[in-house]
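hey can u check if this looks right to u? its 111 residues, i copy pasted from the old doc so theres a chance i mangled smth
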Amino acid sequence: MTYVVTEPCIGTKDRSCVEVCPVDCFFNNKESALNAQVSKEPAKAGDVGMLVIHPDECIHCGACEPECPVDAIFEEDDVPEKWKSYIELNAQAVAKLSEAELEANRVTMKE
């Protein structure tokens, strides 16, 4: 099982969750269409989209969930019904990336 980032992260992309992640399983999903879909402007200019969790890299430690200031992170089984599509969105966002693209989009504390 994995954790999933959902809609409240769009336009926010707060990095509090990244700071506590022991395995660096967060990635940028830089799709501006996500912002348009929910009518949210990015918190920082040009920082569109949302963070996603790589389901194969998440170790299900739970450290990220309480750190999210916008309550966007849930265990996969606990994602609210209205955001169930974000389970697939997280998985697909990383599945379509090459190894080089994964590393270029990995979000770490070093950023």
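The chain is about 25% helix and 15% strand.
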